[in-house]
C-alpha cells in the first residue's frame, strides 16, 4: 500500500495550492479518503474527508469555504484545492485512507476520522508566508 502526496510548497498569504495524493495497493474506490495536517509543535488535525463515491464531503470549520477535497476513482487520486491560504495553514499535510465499511462520522467527530484511517502517506509541507 502506498499513499504519495505532492504539490506542497511555499505560497504567499491569499495564494492557492493544489495537493494531490496518489494511491496504490488497495481498492481505492472502496475507501473514504481524508486530509490531515500537523503544524510544528501541534497535534495532527483533521482537515477534510470524502466518501468512497465522492458524494459526501466533510470539512473542519477552520477550512470551510477555502479548501475543497475531491477524488478521481478512475486514476486513484485524491486532491485538496487550497485557496485564500493563511499563515496558520502552514503544516505538513497528510493523505489517509480508511472506513472501507462505509459508515462515516460527521466532520466534528475528528477522533473517529483519525482512528478510522488504515493507511497514511508521508506528508507534504505547505508553508504560507510572505
Structural descriptors:
single chain, 130 residues, mainly beta, four-stranded antiparallel beta sheet, 11 strands, 47% strand
Describe the protein:
The protein has one helix spanning 110-116; strands at residues 2-6, 9-11, 17-24, 32-38, 45-50, 57-59, 67-72, 77-82, 91-98, 117-120, 124-128. With 130 residues, the chain is mainly beta. The strands form 2 sheets. Strands 2, 4, 5, 6, 9, 10 and 11 form a 7-stranded mixed β-sheet that branches. A 4-stranded antiparallel β-sheet has the order 1-3-8-7, with no helix packed on it. Strand 5 and strand 6 (57-59) form a beta hairpin.
What is the number of strand segments?
11
Class based on secondary structure composition and strand pairing: mainly beta
- Tally of separate helices: 1
Alpha-carbon Rg, integer? 14 Å
Please write the string of helix (H) and strand (E) elements. Answer: EEEEEEEEEHEE
pLDDT averaged residue by residue: 96
Distance between the termini: 37 Å
**Which ranges are low-confidence, i.e. pLDDT below 50, for 5 or more consecutive residues?**
none
Beta fraction = over 45%
Share of helical residues: under 10%
Oligomer: single chain
Main beta-sheet annotation: 7 strands, mixed
Overall morphology: globular
Amino acid at each position: 500500500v502506498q499513499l504519495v502526496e505532492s504539490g506542497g510548497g511555499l505560497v504567499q498569504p491569499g495564494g492557492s495550492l493544489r495537493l494531490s495524493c496518489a494511491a496504490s495497493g488497495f481498492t481505492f474506490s472502496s475507501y473514504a479518503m481524508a486530509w490531515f495536517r500537523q503544524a510544528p509543535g501541534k497535534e495532527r488535525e483533521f482537515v477534510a474527508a470524502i466518501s468512497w463515491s465522492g458524494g459526501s464531503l466533510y470539512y473542519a470549520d477552520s477550512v470551510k469555504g477555502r479548501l475543497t477535497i475531491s477524488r478521481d476513482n478512475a486514476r486513484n487520486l485524491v486532491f485538496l484545492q487550497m485557496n485564500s491560504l493563511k499563515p496558520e495553514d502552514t503544516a505538513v499535510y497528510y493523505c489517509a485512507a480508511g472506513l472501507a465499511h462505509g459508515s462515516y462520522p460527521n466532520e466534528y467527530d475528528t477522533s473517529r476520522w483519525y482512528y478510522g484511517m488504515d493507511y497514511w502517506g508521508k506528508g507534504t509541507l505547505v508553508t504560507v508566508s510572505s
